[in-house]
Amino acid sequence: MSVNIDSMYQQIILDHYKHPNHRGELADFDAEVHHVNPTCGDEVTLRVRVADGEIADLGWTGEGCSISQASTSVMSDLVVGSSVTDALQLQEKFLQLMQSQGHNDLTEDETEALEDAIAFEGVSKYPARVKCALLGWMAMKSAVASATGAGDKP
Ligand code: ZN
What we know:
CATH topology: Sufe protein. Chain: A
Shape: globular
Helix content: 40-55%
Distance between the termini: 33 Å
Structural class: alpha+beta
Strand content: 15-25%
CATH architecture: Alpha-Beta Complex
Bound molecules: zinc ion
């Protein structure tokens, strides 16, 4: 299935796919999760280290389509070094964006906070690909929950 999205956004996604950030196995970590998106065949294994309420470090490995891998790279850039609270709020905003079917009602500030992640906005029009874009973000959320002992609570 081809995804027709803005060419500037397409470039951001391709750049992250070719040069993923925070890709690699973290030696020192508090939690590890493995998430799969069976409909597309995407996989990501993500490790996180949480210290003083912050995401001190995060590393991931994975395989799959460019959307899933690029989105995980973008997510990593955004959350490493930020507080757990901010990271989970951002995850919530990205989830809203991906469920918007191309008509999000995020504020200007929220859009700005998402930085490169806004490049995936066009993907929200393709229900089959939404799970690709969300894979890394969902993995981050559950890894952080497991690292902080918060279970499924946000
Ligand atoms: Zn995919």
